[in-house]
């Protein structure tokens, strides 16, 4: 299973109300995009503090997840800050300010998404969408797919190891062929499994609706108030600082 | 006494024409632990799928408590409430985000209220000794834990009969021991157990009734201690006698065990028998 999913299940804020976590992350995201870059810096620090100190997300994972997007960002920033013309390479006018704003907003947005991904399991998020009115057929399917991802992922990893053991990765060409074979094999396996799962569901009295008892913590007034206050404070700083 | 479930003349062909069950007869006595023994690929799983109505036979009938089972929607719902099924691969039946959520699926499908369902979930988890895993996501469980979670999901519906397909396959010794304990508790509480296996030693130590499966039919059925010492019947089903039974037989022919000694189901039973015959051993 992926380290992100593991962290989402095991962090200290796993049981915090979904509404509070999404309000905080999405609220801050909106502020970071709408207000001045200074506010974005505040957003990034708030989110990082919430994730690392509040939810005790592993710093290694937190920064590890940031590495790839930051790499893309670095490339983008260089093209903003520099100018290539007839005189050769030079600094673009106003390029630094623009690049700085881009970095601040991007990092802020990234921390908001990461916070949500690392403190809230995907199944909680989908379940939340269901309560907001997403049709139950879509929610059930999404949850089953979420579950299937891990099962098929495990199968794919096992097949890959088996191929490697028989020199399926010996050359680049062979590696591509091996990957194709895995893809071709996963489909019938997935169908087989789906059929067995259908039998299992029917054996447990399934009548077309996936109902389970989910233990949810309801959002608290104090929690929502604290989050709103945080959002308001950052908004004020962003508007007037 | 009429058996709890009575299967007669069951015939089933896979799409494509291969005959899986061929006029199969089976009696499932109430409150017992029935082992269905046979080699891999003999059709044991196909049989279990018939016993809760998941597959419909081409001919033959299944009676539960004397009443012939039918395949209407309502009848099937009722059937599956009374006869639970645990598949060999637990991943096939765990689908919810957490163990407790998954176990609640069956009770809610029975139309139980939230409190009652919650109660059933707690009971089922306690019966399998996995209450501490209630909030664990199902994909973060070990193989043995998944197996017990899947069984909890079945017993939360309080079936009269619980069917398990190869329950010990792939389990390590501890996982197997924990599972056997849990199944014994269920049996003590009155649940009739049916399980398929190709492990004669497991059937010998755990089952009280056995059926030998071969070529789509049951070739012999009877009390485990009798049937599993019947070498001819076992050979016909391509199975070897249980180790403890063979050992006891050999010791008897050499006069090291009493001729009328009860068959030892466990190593401890065997040690007691040896001690009875050889005081020197008991003293050592």
From TrEMBL, chain A:
Coiled-coil blocks: none
Subcellular location: Cell membrane
Membrane disposition: Multi-pass membrane protein
InterPro entries: ABC/ECF_trnsptr_transmembrane, Cobalt_transport_CbiQ, ECF_CbiQ
Primary site of residence: membrane
A Pfam family this chain is assigned to: CbiQ
GO CC terms, sorted: ATP-binding cassette (ABC) transporter complex
The keyword rRNA-binding is assigned to this record: no
Any Gene Ontology biological process: cobalt ion transport
Keywords: Cell membrane, Membrane, Transmembrane, Transmembrane helix
PANTHER family linked to this entry: COBALT TRANSPORT PROTEIN CBIQ
Family: Belongs to the CbiQ family.
Name the UniProt record assigns to this protein: Cobalt ECF transporter T component CbiQ
From TrEMBL, chain B:
PROSITE patterns: ABC_TRANSPORTER_1, ABC_TRANSPORTER_2
Keywords noted in UniProt: ATP-binding, Cell membrane, Membrane, Nucleotide-binding, Translocase, Transport
Topology with respect to the bilayer: Peripheral membrane protein
A GO molecular function held by the record: ATP hydrolysis activity
Matches recorded under Pfam families: ABC_tran (PF00005)
Main location: membrane
Entry's localization field: Cell membrane
One GO-annotated biological process of the protein: cobalt ion transport
Transmembrane stretches, start-end: none
GO cellular component: ATP-binding cassette (ABC) transporter complex
Superkingdom of this protein's organism: Bacteria
Alphabetized PANTHER family for the sequence: ENERGY-COUPLING FACTOR TRANSPORTER ATP-BINDING PROTEIN ECFA1, HEAVY METAL TRANSPORTER
Primary role: Part of an ABC transporter complex. Responsible for energy coupling to the transport system.
Family: Belongs to the ABC transporter superfamily.
Protein name (database record): ABC transporter ATP-binding protein
């Amino acid at each position: 299973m992926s380290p992100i999913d593991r962290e989402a299940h095991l962090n200290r804020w796993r049981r915090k109300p979904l509404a509070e976590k999404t309000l905080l992350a999405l609220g801050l995201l909106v502020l970071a995009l709408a207000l001045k870059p200074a506010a974005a810096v505040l957003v990034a620090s708030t989110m990082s503090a919430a994730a690392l100190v509040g939810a005790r997300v592993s710093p290694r994972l937190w920064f590890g997840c940031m590495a790839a997007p930051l790499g893309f960002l670095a490339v983008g920033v260089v093209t903003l800050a520099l100018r290539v013309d007839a005189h050769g390479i030079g600094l673009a006018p106003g390029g630094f300010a623009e690049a700085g704003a881009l970095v601040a907003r991007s990092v802020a947005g990234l921390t908001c998404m990461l916070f949500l991904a690392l403190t809230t399991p995907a199944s909680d998020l989908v379940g939340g969408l269901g309560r907001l009115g997403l049709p139950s057929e879509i929610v059930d399917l999404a949850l089953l797919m979420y579950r299937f991802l891990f099962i098929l992922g495990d199968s794919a990893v096992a097949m890959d190891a088996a191929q490697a053991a028989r020199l399926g990765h010996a050359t680049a060409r062979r590696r591509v062929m091996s990957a194709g074979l895995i893809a071709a094999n996963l489909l019938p396996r997935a169908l087989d499994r789906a059929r067995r799962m259908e039998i299992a569901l029917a054996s447990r009295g399934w009548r077309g609706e996936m109902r389970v008892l989910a233990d949810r913590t309801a959002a608290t007034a104090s929690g929502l108030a604290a989050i709103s206050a945080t959002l308001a404070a950052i908004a004020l700083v962003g508007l007037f600082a | 006494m009429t058996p709890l479930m009575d299967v007669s003349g069951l015939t089933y062909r896979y799409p494509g024409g291969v005959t899986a069950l061929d006029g199969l007869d089976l009696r499932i006595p109430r409150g017992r632990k029935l082992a269905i023994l046979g080699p891999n690929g003999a059709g044991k799983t196909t049989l279990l799928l018939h016993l809760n109505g998941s597959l419909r036979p081409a001919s033959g009938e299944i009676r539960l408590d004397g009443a012939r089972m039918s395949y209407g929607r309502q009848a099937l719902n009722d059937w599956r409430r009374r006869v639970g099924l645990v598949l060999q691969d637990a991943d096939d039946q765990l689908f919810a985000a957490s163990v407790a959520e998954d176990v609640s699926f069956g009770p809610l499908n029975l139309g139980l209220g939230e409190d009652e369902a919650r109660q059933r979930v707690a009971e089922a988890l306690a019966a399998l000794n996995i209450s501490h895993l209630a909030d664990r996501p199902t994909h973060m469980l070990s193989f043995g834990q998944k197996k017990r979670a899947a069984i909890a999901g079945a017993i939360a519906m309080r079936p009269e009969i619980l069917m398990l397909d190869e329950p010990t396959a792939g389990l390590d010794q501890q996982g197997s021991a924990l599972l056997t304990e849990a199944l014994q508790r269920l049996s003590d509480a009155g649940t009739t157990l049916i399980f398929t296996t190709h492990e004669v030693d497991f059937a010998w130590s755990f089952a009280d009734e056995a059926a030998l499966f071969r070529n789509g039919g049951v070739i012999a059925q009877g009390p485990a201690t009798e049937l599993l010492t019947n070498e001819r019947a076992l050979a016909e089903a391509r199975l070897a006698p249980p180790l403890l039974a063979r050992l006891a037989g050999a010791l008897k022919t050499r006069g090291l065990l009493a001729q009328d000694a009860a068959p030892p189901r466990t190593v401890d039973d065997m040690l007691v028998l040896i001690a009875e015959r050889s005081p020197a051993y008991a003293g050592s």
